[in-house]
Design a protein that fits this description.
Length: 327
């Protein structure tokens, strides 16, 4: 685990995955089909993680592809606006398209309509991966969606190899999105392979259940992946909090109260808050709580990237809210 913590504490993260455009209905509470106004900003899980890290004072570089059109350029401009390094973002032409998500700030019957036809982010190749100097970073982050299709799948596993050769820990968020995969069986096999190669594995109970092949079986998978290894596994349970397996110990944590206006973006913000806090030298339990605080902040505001807290906003939240009781 020491190598993992030391890598995170370098506070320089290479992040594999997608960027997309989010359009969310305005004002808060309006359903998408009734809206006359939408606000646009950056979205996509990996882009959100990059923004979350950047706003908390960490260095992040996104490795992805976007379409060579107005939407792709919009995403690139927003990444730069938030301080994300875009040197590894590639434009792709033809029929490939950057993802578009249309949703609302309305927790009841929340709708998120996602367009991922011919997704541009799946066009990251081995060549793209090979031009990265991994020794410039402290850790590699990937989300599960990058493994759903080729050539991105092979490129991601190549990135894992090169990261390990350079001594970088691998941080993996399962991020299972069924619509991106050709079959559940392939998804389960590939995500399990990635989980075994990771040094820090994060997922919710439904994602671990999926990997285990049955309801209520995921916790055993999380325990097994952490057992007799230096791997940290964080098993998230929504309102029930989380169980973290590390060095033979279990850390059980609750969640902070929130007045949510949407459910999305919480996991991405949790990841950013967790890693930035570890990079500051905070212990794992405190880092988990700060990640949970970031999630509570993000679900309470419209949008994803714009809702990610700054360091001052996170500190202010932590001063105002005592740690929730452990589950």
């Amino acid at each position: 685990m020491n190598a993992l913590i030391e890598g995170i504490q370098k506070n320089k993260f290479a992040v594999l995955g997608r960027a997309g455009m989010d359009m969310f209905a305005d004002p808060i509470g309006v359903k998408s089909e009734n809206a006359s106004t939408f606000k646009a900003d950056l979205g996509g899980s990996s882009a959100n993680i990059c923004v979350g890290l950047s706003k908390l004072g960490s260095y992040s570089a996104l490795i992805t592809s976007v379409s060579d059109d107005a939407v792709g350029r919009f995403c690139l401009n927003r990444l730069k606006y938030y301080g994300v390094d875009t040197q590894f973002v590639k434009y792709v032409s033809g029929e490939y398209r950057t993802s578009l998500a249309i949703y609302e700030s309305c927790i009841n019957n929340f709708q998120n309509v996602i367009y991922r036809n011919n997704a541009a982010d799946f066009q990251v190749t081995n060549e793209d991966i090979s031009r990265i100097n991994y020794s410039d970073f402290g850790a590699l982050i990937a989300t599960g969606t990058v493994l759903a299709c080729e050539p991105s799948r092979s490129a991601t596993f190549l990135a894992f190899e090169k990261a390990k050769e350079a001594g970088l820990p691998i941080i993996f968020d399962i991020d299972y999105r069924p619509y991106s995969w050709s079959s559940p069986e392939i998804a389960s096999d590939v995500l399990t392979q990635a989980g075994k190669q990771s040094d820090l594995l994060i997922g919710n109970d439904e994602e671990f259940d999926f990997m285990a092949g049955g309801i209520k079986k995921g916790l055993k998978v999380a325990e097994r992946l952490a057992k007799n290894s230096e791997r940290i596994v964080i098993y998230k349970m929504g309102s029930e909090g989380a169980i973290t397996f590390a060095s033979g110990n279990e850390i059980r944590t609750g969640i902070f109260p929130a007045a949510p206006v949407k459910p999305n973006g919480a996991g991405d913000s949790f990841m950013a808050g967790l890693l930035s806090s570890i990079s500051e030298g905070r212990d794992l339990t405190e880092a988990i709580y700060r990640g949970s605080a970031c999630a509570a902040i993000v679900v309470s505001k419209p949008g994803c990237a714009p809702a990610m807290p700054t360091h001052d906003q996170l500190d202010a939240f932590m001063k105002k809210h005592p740690h929730p009781k452990r589950v």
